[in-house]
Amino acid sequence: MKLVGSTTSPYVRKVRVLLAEKGLAYEFVEDNAWHAATTVPRYNPLNKVPALVMDDGESIYDSMVITEYVDCLDGAPLLPREPAARARARRDEALGNGLMDAGVTIFLERKREAARQDAAWIGRHRDKIDAALATWARSLEARGAGALTLGDIACGCALFWFEFRLPELRWRDDAGLDAWARRLEARPSFAATRPPA
Q1: What pLDDT, on a 0 to 100 scale, did the predictor assign at position 42?
Q2: Among 53, 83, 165, 178, which has the minimal tally of Cβ within 10 Å of its Cβ?
Q3: Of 125, 156, 176, which Cα lies nearest the Cα of 14?
Q4: How many angstroms separate the Cα of 143 from the Cα of each of 94, 103, 119, 152, 178?
Q5: pLDDT tens, 180-194?
């Protein structure tokens, strides 16, 4: 298997963490979809990462599609088989992806020249982040520590990316989120996939 992506992408990190948790070997091909010489479109016509090249050479893309595939491979699955529990796990992963989407939108909007930035657009996505963080904090409080889930991986990758790119969000001010995050950071899968300083 070959994973194509950037070390700074939270979507790529989510897949890398899952691969590490399952103990699966793969080749990591670092590529930046924003560079003119990118090879990402060879693997994903949408020019987005991550893309996973399977052993037969076929590519799959979108982090949720990739995690569905990887979870079916060797190692203990993180997605339950029972339909309602599986739907909750996928919902929590979608919450993490939504956090990533909103954060990336803010980050990219802020890259525009100041006069062209849309404060209302940024505010709309900040509201999504605030609501999602509150939802995740309540979920963690209700379930307790528990076993690692795909929702943990997705939300963890989103929140750690916020520290990297949007530190003003200060989500660690929530004691429950901070305690949960510290448990994740202690896992080798998260430690090994930290973005570069």
Answers
A1: 97
A2: 83
A3: 156
A4: 18, 26, 36, 12, 16
A5: 999 999 999 999 999
